[in-house]
Structures are given as structure tokens and as C-alpha cells.
């Protein structure tokens, strides 16, 4: 028996116990290796005319034996010689695939796509297996060899038999304990699920023998005398086994956009992101260059029920060379676009050995930036070309955009403010800031808004009526975040054209003409004693009593003196400390 190198031994322990956080990924790693082995053979056939190969025969086979507690991953790829078994599986972190990649960096066009690059994926098998046996026959050789290890003591390599080139990796699963069961990997359902989940887009067929049921056609029985003739024969069923391809192979995001129908995109969205409604928008990014990647993104047509709860997790599915790395990669989406669903696939991401944490976040940041820009431009497009869809979108997700402005202290104002909609008291529909400004009165120097619980109530507010009576529109805001967003923005527009955002309930409206101001001042002077008496009577409840020139029909109104409006005070007072 050969011992693993000491470093290997330590690394093996470390890896089994801590690097991989999720034991079920062992199958993904073994399937990825099988796919790499098939790819290497295919690549060799491209460059060596002596190798006659039918690409359609290349495949990966997954099977299990519940009684023997084994799971087997077989491939008819390039296989390994005795020497290669020793070198590739005897030394942890020795990745032949990495060397292959480097050797063929230039020649390797789109046709070859090696997944492995870290040299520890194979050992993830020991998270679930007490024994691993690898039987392999290298292409072009007539010898087969078996490598075997229990992961702890070392490994043996002995002659074996195999009909064809390729490799079988046979795992004998660990025994169940009180805390842990491995039985899920000994079911058709369990294995199929894992293949679909992690390896759905591996480019070679991953096949499994599955049990199916079919109706048996019984030969018609000619009724004898006395038989109840009109009792219909009950159908009989039998089960049979059939080899099925489990993975769908070509990822939809790698297909030419022009070749995919909107229905196919919608089906993919619904199946992969568990929604029953079609997406409101679908778009993609194809980037080539220093960092190549594909992204396929969706805006849902309805908000998930937990969107605004603490449990909601944003993120995009992250694939590296068609293999799922992470179901929800948070770093790819800013908070204000947390509703976006989709997939990012890049073969250029530098992943660390566990594949579960990413080594260089700068690559992710670059992708995230591009995605954010793309979402913004797609939303603008929707706003311009498909107003109804956009209004529904905004009802679902608009609150998040406003929070984006508020939480960024206004840094996102220029990106997001043109995506906001508010109810216009004058136009009786939702408008953007730009539309408000385009319809404003000559000489109007501010954008007016009012905040309250319902549009109906706001319309009745004296201060709203007063502003409207001057011909100025008022945005009626009913969401808790509206006022925080307005206060953060302070104004809308660029440079000299910027208009202040003013709460009609605030103390600094300054709508009065010079004449009106003079009149108010005169009245104030005349009644100075009366106001002093009123103020004294109201005590701490008010900070001042003054003549107003902003009222129309109503005799009096309450306004807030400071930057915080009455409505905002109400919201703030409801917040937990
Ligand atoms: P990686 O795939 O990142 O290179 P692994 O630990 O997964 O690292 O595998 C180590 C090496 O073992 C691979 O680089 C490859 O050379 C070899 N290997 C593993 N599985 C197979 C297989 N099914 N067929 C041929 N070679 C394999
Ligand atoms: Mg690997």
C-alpha cells in the first residue's frame, strides 16, 4: 500500500472536514471529472486523425446499488494509465486538467471546456464514501488498473479488467449513523435531483437507468357463457428500466438569442426560479474579452411574498463552465435590484478550491457593475415602450428603488430617480419627475409633494388644494419610503434647472406673491395681541401661530416647522427603537 504524501494526508482531512460545506457536491465533482475525461478524448480526436470517434457515443453513466451501498460514475473518456492513477489520484492538489488547460490554451477553441482546475474535486468523494475504487483504462491501452483507497491510510493500485477505455469511480457509501444518513444517494430520485441541480448543463449526456411504468395491453379475453360481459378490463401496469439522459446539456444562455423563443425563455425562468407567472422582462449579456461571461436575466412579473422580509435572499445563480457553483450569489446584485433573477456563467472566474467561495471578488464586482447598468437601461426601455408593464413593475418593486436612493444617501439619485413614479393630483395618473417637470407652470420653482395614507385623503388636504389652486401639480405619495427618498434627493434636475422638492405640509413653501405677503404682514400686526393669546393658550402644542397666505377654503391648517413633516413624524414614531 502506498501512503498519501503527508501534505496530502493533512489536506485530505482538512478538506473532508471543512473546505466543502455541502457533502452532496461530491457528485458534481465526479461528473465534472468524467466530463473533462470525455472532453480530453474528444479533443485528442480533433487533433489526431488516428483516433476515430463518434461524438454521439460519448457519455457519462451514473448508477447505484442500494444493497451494496455503492454509487458509480462511469465515463468512456480518455482514462488513466497506471502511472496517471498514481500521479493524479495519489497526490492531492495535482491537477492534470490544469496542466492540460495550460498546454492547450491556444489551440483549445470553443470545442473543449475543461471544468477541473484545482486538483481536489476528486477527494470530495470521501465526504460520503468510506471506500473509493477507480477502475480505469487509458485510451489506446489494453490494460486496466484499479486504484483503491479508504481515504485514511493510503491507496493501492492493482491490475483490473475493463472492456473499453474510460473510468469507473465506485463509491462505497459510509454507514448511516444516528446523526447522518447517506441513503438519499442510493435512490433514483436523489441522484437524478443532484444531476439536474448541479450538472444539468454539462455538455455530454449524463445517463441513468430509471424505472418507468407502462400500461400492459392484455389480449382480449373472449367471454365465456355467464361472464359479465360489460365489465371493462382494468388496465394493468408493469415497471421496466430504461436508460434516460438526465441533463439538458445545452444551457439556454449559451444558445443564440435568435434561436430561442420567448416561450422557451419563459419556461426556463418558471422551472428554474419556481414562479408560475411569465417574467415581465427577459434580457441577456454576452461579454467577451479579459473576462468572458454570459448572463441571462429576468424581471419577475410579481413580487415574491417575502420580498420585504428579512428572509428574502437576493442573488443570481453562478455557473462556471456550465456547472453550478452557487445558487444565489449575492455579490452580483445591488440591493435596489434584489428582485432580478437569473444566471451568470463564466469560465474565467478564479474560484478557490472549494468552488464555493470565490477568490477574486474584483471579477464579480466587474460583472455586477455591468449587470446593474443593464438592468437600469432595460427598466428605462420598459418605461418608455411598455408603460402598463412598467407601472405594474413599479407597484411590485418601486419601493426598493426609492430605498436605494435613501440608503445610498443620494449617491444613486441620478441612476434611479428617473425610474420613479408618483401619483399626480393634477393629471390623475402616475408620472415620472421628468413628466412632472415637462408639465409645470411658467415660473414654478419647485416640485410639490404631499405624503399621507391614501390619495383620497391627500386630495382633501387644505395645503394640497392651496398649491393646486395656483395651478401647480402635487405628487401624492402614499408609501412610507416616499418622504425619506424625497428628503434624501432634495432636488431633481441638473445644475440651474434643478427644482427643489417641497412638501406642501412643510413650513417653507413660499408660494405667496409680494402683495399677499404684505397683506398677511399687515393682518399679523393688527392682531398681534390675539396671536400672542392663542399661542399662550396652546402652550407647548405649537411652536408658532401665524397668518397664512396659502389656504383657500379652510380657516386654519397645521404645518410642521422643521425638516420632518407631520407624516414623517408619524412613521418615525411607529418605528421600533
Ligand atoms: P481537477 O478536476 O480539478 O483537475 P480532481 O481532484 O477533480 O481535480 O481530479 C484530479 C485529476 O484526476 C484530474 O485532473 C484528472 O487528471 C484525473 N481524473 C479524475 N477523474 C478522472 C476520470 N474520470 N477520467 C480521467 N481522469 C480523471
Ligand atoms: Mg475535478
Automatic annotation (TrEMBL):
Gene3D superfamilies: 3.30.230.80, 3.40.50.11260, Heat shock protein 90, C-terminal domain, Histidine kinase-like ATPase, C-terminal domain. The gene is htpG. Belongs to the heat shock protein 90 family. Keywords: ATP-binding, Chaperone, Cytoplasm, Nucleotide-binding, Stress response. ATP binds at residues 29, 33, 75, 80, 88, 117-122, 167, 355. One of its GO terms (cellular component) is cytoplasm. This is Chaperone protein HtpG. Molecular chaperone. Has ATPase activity. Pfam families: HATPase_c_3, HSP90. It comes from the Bacteria.
